[in-house]
Design brief:
The chain is built from 4 helices and 5 strands. A 5-stranded antiparallel β-sheet has the order 1-2-3-5-4, with helices on both faces.
Amino acid sequence: MTTEFSDMAQRFSSTPRGARLARRLAQAQLDIWGVPYGCALSDDVGLVVGELAANAVLHGRVPDRDFELRLSYGGGNVRVMVSDTRSDKGPPDAPAPVDPWSAEGGRGLMVVAAVAREWGVAARGPGKTVWAELGDRLAGRRHGGAGPQGVVRVTQGAGLGAAFGASSGSSPNGSSSAGGAG
């Protein structure tokens, strides 16, 4: 695996095919960066991209507008960012009142929280970016580490600084490698 920092961004149609292509591209890009198919990090990134892209298509779709996938990789860590143009509908603030494991849907962000060490939502104009960090540093709950910190709620005018400096989902030092997420 490379220790250099690399970024990629690609827009996809807000369709099920676009979500599937986003997941495939993410794993192909990781392979190019030296993270082979089938390893835990590649599988986890594929799962997270699949869930976030599906959410962008199902819940963030605006007619004739694409969603965007951004990946940042370096030092064994991956940051996944999926942006859509719908700002009026974001992840729920609280879990569903029924048992989510018996429901037909609604488990996507629980899956993301289970494999990512942290994740959150940042406002962008127009729309929002849902991001997740995965990898070696402070490995997530299923790998025996500290686990995810939860969802970061950011108001429309707050900007990315508020998202990454917020107490519930910021990195331990309050910094971010989001770069161009907005």
